[in-house]
Amino acid sequence: MAVERWDPFREMVSLRDAMNSLLHESFVRPPSGPGQAGPATLALDVAENENEFVIHASLPGVKPEDVQIAVHGDVLTIRGESKFEEEKKGQTWHLRERRHGTYQRSLSLGTPVNTDKANAQFEHGVLTLTLPKSEAAQPKQIKVGGRS
Predict the structure, then answer these.
(1) Average pLDDT value for residue range 11-36
(2) Residue 39's pLDDT band (boundaries 50, 70, 90)?
(3) Is 17 a residue whose pLDDT tops 80?
(4) Are 65 and 80 in contact (CB under 8 A)?
(5) Which domain holds residue 78?
(6) How far apart, in whole angstroms, are the C-alpha atoms of residue 82 and residue 139?
(7) Residue at 122 is within a domain
């Protein structure tokens, strides 16, 4: 029988492994399921130019009539809902990973927008919003006069 030297550090977890485990357990979101309450976060792309904001929102599985858009001051809220497909008699699910339920996102644009001239298009699960900035937010040129 061979004698092995006892090393107390062999059984200890490395600091890196401990931190990885801590961060993974703290910040990695559990998978969402049909019984989970609360809206899921909506993925957005937001671009701005001198005259308007252009927002692209991914709403997979959501019908255009199930999308609500609201602007209150400079805060934009987009909400959508995809319906849960009911099980049919005689059908057995082996895997259900697609998210169903409510998607929602609110963000401050930092500038008031003109909702009367706003445009919303929905194609292939992507909502495209064009929100013109209000007249008060538009840059204005001021002419400098001199004395003659």
Answers:
(1) 63
(2) low
(3) no
(4) no
(5) 39-85+100-137
(6) 40
(7) yes
Most confident of 19-23, 51-55, 80-84, 87-91: 51-55
Amino acid at the residue 31 = P
19 within a domain of the structure (yes/no): no
Q: What is the mean pLDDT of residues 60-80?
A: 90
Distance between CA atoms of 41 and 132, rounded to whole angstroms?
25
With respect to residue 105, please indicate whether it lies within any of the assigned structural domains: yes
Could you tell me the end-to-end alpha-carbon distance of the chain, in angstroms, rounded to an integer? 109
Residue 127 lies in a domain: yes
pTM for this prediction:
0.63
Say which CATH number the domain at 115 has.
2.60.40.790
**Cα–Cα dist 6/61, whole Å:** 59
